[in-house]
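INFO batch 0412 | record 1 of 1 | parsing
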Amino acid sequence: MSDSARRDALALQTPLCELLGCRYPVVQTAMGWVAGPELVAATSNAGGFGFLAGATIAADQIEADILKVKQLNGDKPFGLNFHMFQPNAQQLLDLAIKHQLRAVSYGRGPDKKTIARLRNAGIHCMPTVGALKHAQKAIEMGANIITIQGGEGGGHTGSVPTTVLLPQVVDAVKVPVVAAGGFYDGRGLVAALAFGAQGIAMGTRFLMTSDSGVAAATLQRYVEVKEADRIRISYLIDGMPQRMIDNEYLAMLEKASPFKRLRIALSSAMQWKAQTGMTMGHVARVLWQAFREDPAALAQTVMAANAPVLLQRSMVEGKPAEGVMSSGQVAALIGELQSCEQVLQGIVAQALERLEVLGNLRGNPT
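INFO prediction complete | emitting tokens
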């Protein structure tokens, strides 16, 4: 690293950088079918911290992908994302410990015993939440870093904007908070730090890079979006609020009858079952657990397979008109595909510039 790069890193250093072992307080989120070994390695090589999307990697491929990241990034720290309802959730936990990964991320999280096992192995537990009560519950369960995602973010998100949710959580918890939802440049990083966050997490900004590996036809659709109101929340994919870009498939779902949407969900569920190797016994246990917790959530659980299957069509197969495109509203502000290195260096340069301007304002009162 050059002397100037070291100075830049120090200027933006927060405790999060030490915890995660990265130069800059910028996290790449674990987007299904997007956050593979190449993107994770490119992120860490550029100075950020990346999460491998373990939820959409085949069970017999996940360890090879972990090793590939280590090979590509010179054994720099990175993390792994998982969901406890995955049939191979235990495998992912074991691999995170075996390979001494720096952190794990998750939504609906594991129990206290599992989190304690990870923490005792030196792994930071970093769930993503969209409400203060969920942040507090996650910390009670053992999480030691919290990512909050405001309504501007992509994928599953809540309705509370980041500018409201972030200060609310920062004021209420004692662990490091990472801000997500609406971030894509150095100005956002400075704003998040001013709110009290220790860094930012970005999904869409990393998806829209030349390192993401997303199919070219799909990336072109992202770049063509110029208006944020084309990126909106829908409940039709898996019954939960999910922000995505308007397209032909979403328009079809909106016109479809409830019976047709259920038929599509069942077809997706069977396809997802085949891809993940999930047994009928595991399916039955997941559905029974959902029914016991909330009978109204049973249909939503059946629909849950829609998201990964429809994302796969867009991100992997390059058929954006036949799948869905999760996206934060910032996609409308990104007009070109840069590398992760260019993105991180641009964020750092702009953040340092804004900090210098703010310092000059402080030194020149009116």
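INFO post-check: The chain has two domains: 3-211+339-359, 232-329.
INFO record closed
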